[in-house]
Amino acid sequence: MVFLLINAFPGCQKEKVDFDSLDKDYYSELASLVKSNLKSIGQNLREHNATFNSRDFVINSAHQNFSEGNEVYDAFLIGYENSYNNLSLKRYLKSDCINKVIEEIEVAIINSDNSSDFTDYLQAKFEEVYASNIKTEDKDFLLHYIILNKTSVEFISNNLDLISSNSKNLKTEDDEDDEDDEGWWNSWGRCAAGTLGGVGLGALSGAAAGSVVPLIGTKVGLIVGGISGGLTGAAAAC
Q: What residues contact residue 98 under an 8 Å CB cut-off, 6+ apart?
């Protein structure tokens, strides 16, 4: 099975597989930090009866979460504004290999019956990419993209009331019933997932990062800002 995985991704530049060069736990830890900050911003929005559709409330919630003048908050603002202004990730990607995998993920959004199917697909794709012999630079980018895409969709699924105030199938993280998963997914969920994967994760591109130093703290701020901007766009357009 591993043999099949490492020989996947035709057309990508390959190199000898070195599992020590990329720490799988790092990506999980990054996703957990992003999830925690999104949850904090979401809780603040909910306390003010606001949604991600309100740009001012989102920025104020991030301000409370990160505190003004903090470099992580500054990174959030850069990520948010780039995403809010529709800075598409694929516009800045030069790697055919990365673009090909992202296109496969975009097709999976369409073909998935519900959000759980899609996040399961993303988890399997993460493992496939990690086990592959894609060159390290492309692999690292894709692992970031996939795990953060999964984190974003899971956040939407657990916080429907913060994305679509008109949704008939609202649930929060305290709800475990997912019987209505297909309802919101078929109605506007695919659109939201596509928006997040396109502009919400634009913060992963070097052009979006700008002058932000890619330390873990500022990287989290930049990514949370990008996802939040994507959620604002999704709340308005989907």
A: 138, 141, 142, 145
Q: What is the pLDDT of residues 184-224, one digit of tens each?
A: 999 999 999 999 988 888 777 753 344 334 556 788 899 99
Residue 90 to residue 86: CA distance in whole angstroms: 11
Domain extent listing, the chain: 40-165+180-237
Please give the Cα distance from 85 to 24 (Å, whole number): 32
Residue 134: what are its φ and ψ, rounded to 5°?
A: -60, 145
Predicted model pTM:
0.84
SS3 112: coil
Helix intervals (H) in the chain: 2-6, 24-47, 55-66, 71-84, 96-111, 115-131, 136-158, 181-184, 190-195, 206-209, 216-237
Q: Is the CA virtual torsion 52, 225, 103, 145 positive or negative?
A: negative
DSSP letter (8 states) at residue 164:
-
Whose tokens are 């800045």? That residue is 92
